[in-house]
């Protein structure tokens, strides 16, 4: 008999995409799926249309200043109260939290009600919300073998499942990577994640435009950039005689990743998972000033495996990127080796592993 499973996720695509992948898999297995999310999660153009959605109040703890902290705790309290009513209303069989404070009220409500709980950590660092919940939940699913802030006392409840990716990503992985030979077209893909990245729009176009003319003639650049940056980015490429396809959003980004010889991007958890499953060589520019440097830790997992090159934003300028691009693009074997290393890191069946874990917890 199918179970009633609540997925708690919100805030950003990095939390919502794996939740969507899991929702699709669990629904195919005959379970009823509900999404508990926040106001930001409700605004994302992510298709949870087959799930009943509940908007749960939430807030992120960003300061210890008394008044803002009281307001945040009050909002989290309201979220726990509403989540408790929802779990009671639907007689939830289990709650799966995908990290971030938007998941926190629903997981806490489940703990208070004695509902079985799993938290999933997408990053190579256990996030603050998951850290607070980790000692109390039944199971912790991780994307990486080594996750910062997971101590030995938690090891008996930790399961490495990988980070679930959407079916479009798995479908896009059915290709053999071949680096461009001399004279071949070079496909470069640039994107900044679900929230965009102005910095990449400021640095990448002038760097690519400064490459030797013979290299520029071979380039086809596909770049995601914010609407307000679109005109300047296109103009820079046009002046350098570089063919480009620029837009604020690409619905088929995994397909474009599969066609790319090199990807330049941030290192959010979903991006790392998709690069790995598809097998893409990449230059990673971690989001700076992030709490716990999670994107830097994510990037290290690929660079240490030889699957990527990482340049921190405070060290990256046009000249540095030009030098890195020349080094990579002039040696096709480097690209092929990086692609193979990325593919070895990929976990295309992560959604099945996570779904199996949940069914084992709930008794199928």
Quick summary of this structure?
Helix content is 44%, strand content 16%. The protein has 364 residues and is α/β, with parallel strands linked by helices. A seven-stranded parallel sheet has the order 3-2-1-4-5-6-7, with helices on both faces. Strands 10-9-8-11-12-13 form a six-stranded parallel sheet, with helices on both faces.
**How many domains?**
2
- Strand-residue fraction? 15-25%
Spatial ordering of strands, largest sheet: 3-2-1-4-5-6-7
DSSP E strands, number: 13
**Which regions contain 5 or more consecutive residues with pLDDT less than 50?**
none
Corresponding CATH superfamily of the largest domain: Glycogen Phosphorylase B
- Roughly how much helix do the residues carry, as a percent range? 40-55%
CATH architecture of the largest domain: 3-Layer(aba) Sandwich
- Report the biggest beta sheet as strand number plus sense, adding barrel if it closes: 7 strands, parallel
Total count of helical runs of at least 4 residues: 15
Reading off the top of the CATH hierarchy, the class of the largest domain is best stated as Alpha Beta
Q: Would you tell me the overall average pLDDT?
A: 94
The separation of the N and C termini measures 8 Å
- Structural class comes to alpha/beta
Order of helices and strands, N to C?
EHEHEHEHEHEEHEHHEHEHEHEHEHHH
Based on CA atoms alone, the radius of gyration comes out at 21 Å
CATH topology of the largest domain: Rossmann fold
